[in-house]
Every structure is written in structure tokens, then in C-alpha cells.
Protein: DNA polymerase IV
Organism: Fodinibius halophilus
Amino acid sequence: MEQADIRKIIHIDMDAFYASVEQRDFPEYRGKPVIVGGSPEGRGVVAAASYEVRKFGVHSAMPAAKAVRLCPQAIFVKPRFEVYRKVSQKIREIFFEYTDLVEPLSLDEAYLDVTENHINLPSATLIAKRIRKQIKEKTRLTASAGVAPNKFLAKIASDLEKPDGLAVILPQDAEDFLEKLEIGEFHGIGDATESKMKSLGIYNGSDLKEWSEIELVNTFGKTGRYYYRIVRGIDSREVKTDRIRKSIGKERTFSEDIEDMGWIKNFLRELSSKISKRMKEKRTAGKTVTLKVRYDDFETITRSNSYSHYINTTDDIANTAISLLEETEVGDRKVRLLGITLSNLNLSEKGRFRQLEIPFHETSRTKTG
């Protein structure tokens, strides 16, 4: 990697965000096992778990019924999303003091590219320290940070010293670090894939690195290319700032787990039809189709394809989403949720949709990571 190509990326991840806000605002919850979302009767899903309840094995996206079995004494709290959004906005304002290249992933985490920054500080580590300090002073909450030369490594780094920690992966240390990393610690490798890899003798990055790209593709499908790149620390994705919503999507959680591929494909066509209708109502179109899948064990993945031109028809959206199924384990694993999003919309600089005057007959397509 050439020095000029090395970027300085920070991944900020708030510690047990929703639960920490509740413990901050309500002293009686401090030091107690708090679960945000779900109910003591076992209905719903855990939205967030305090560190006290995580000791019992409870985590976000877990069915509340299982959380109750693991920790009967847990305190269930209804989410206050309006409060969480306000706190998140305060945190993002801190980010923008340092760089305009901020990519929020959710209310509680974001990537920042500080290769060039507003305070002309050459050390991304020092910037991360300052940001964490300001977050604590302004919100009375803690954040963990990862500093690395790309998004994939920064994401992994932010988990290394949680909670309230900071970890740095230097460019020259990246490959050695990844070789020693347990396979389950790789971001993007879920429980099912981890089990499959271990059955094949892949227990850490070093084991994974022994596999050629073609072997990984033959074994894991197109996702094998992703595994080949990440174990070598290769991630060219840019931090994309998006301060205006630039996507339209639909998703649904099913009351029963689904495994019938015919039904799934028909459902994706229904979703595509609804998205197409909304796109046409707004006189807009997009370039990137993202398929979201949540399996029956609550592992959630996304797969995307980007076109070189704008699309908004039901067929274009549906055919792309259905082709993305090939990059998932749908069919072999039951599905709890399916969603489609069309992004990279044709917006003006002011965030308004532009009238389209181009035909939609091109078929070229490029793959996004």
C-alpha cells in the first residue's frame, strides 16, 4: 500500500447506546441488567442490552423470550427513540467539527475520514481521543473508537477495547493482526458461516488466507471474494457522507420463518412493485439496489448491486434483488425478514428530486462491495 493511498478512518461506536441513555436518565437503572425493547412476558425483540445483562448472554436482536430465560431479573424498558435521536444529533455535531466526511450507520455508530480534517491534526488517534472526550462531556455517555487505514479494519478495531476504549490498527500491522484474528471476530462473518468455516478447518485469519480466491468462491459463492479481500486488509470503500436521506425502501418481518424460494421471490416482486410506485410518484430513480436478509437466528446481512444508470421499474428492481439471493444462504436457511432499498437517487444539490429524461433500457451493471 502506497503511503499516498493510506487513509485515516475512525469508527465511533457508542457503548450499549439505548440502554446507556436509560441508565443515564434514570439512576435506579444504573448497575442493573437493563433491556430496551421487548417485554417481560417474552414478546418482541431486544433492541439494546446493558453491559450488566450481557454477562448473562443477552444481546441485541435476541428474542425477548430467550432473554427472559437467560436473565429472569432483567429490567425491560420501552424505547424512547425521540430521545435517542436527539442525543445522536449532538454526537454527530461533534463529528462535523473535525471532518465533513461522516457516514452514519445508525443512531449509535459512524465512520469518519480524517485523512484531511478541519483542525489540521495529522494524528487520527488524537482526533479519536478528543471526540470520545467531547462525547463524554456533552452527553455523559461513553463511546469506543477504532482507528485504521480503512473501514473494515476500523470497524473491527472499535470492538477490541469495548466499552469506553480506543484501539488502533496501523497499516503495517494490519495483515499480521488479521492472521491472528479468530474467524468469528471478522465483521461480516455470522454464526452460520463461522460454523461452516470451522468445519473446513478455518479457525483464524491465517487459516482463511491459505485459501485461494477461486476456492473461496467455489465454497461460499460470490461472498468468497469478500472473504479473500478482507483477510488481506483490502477495503477500498470510501466514507460517504449522506446528510440528506437518499434512499427509498421497504422491508417486512414475518410472523413465521420462511424457506420456500418461490414464495420469497414472489414477495420480493411485491416489495419491488411498491418501491417502484413510490419512486414514480416522486418522479425519481436510483442506481443501487440493496437486499436485506435476516435469517431465523437473527443474523442480518445485506447485498448490493449498482447500475451505471438510473432504474425505477418493478422488473429492474425485482430482477436485481432476486439475483442477489445467489450471494446469500437463502434457500438453505430460513428467513425472518426481507427488505429492498433503492439508493443513489437522482437528487439535486438541494436534495430535491430531479425529473428524469433518460430511458431505462441499458443493462450494464457493476458490483458494489
Q: What stands out?
A: The chain has 13 helices and 13 strands. The CA atoms of residues 42 and 65 lie 4 Å apart. The longest strand covers residues 247-258.
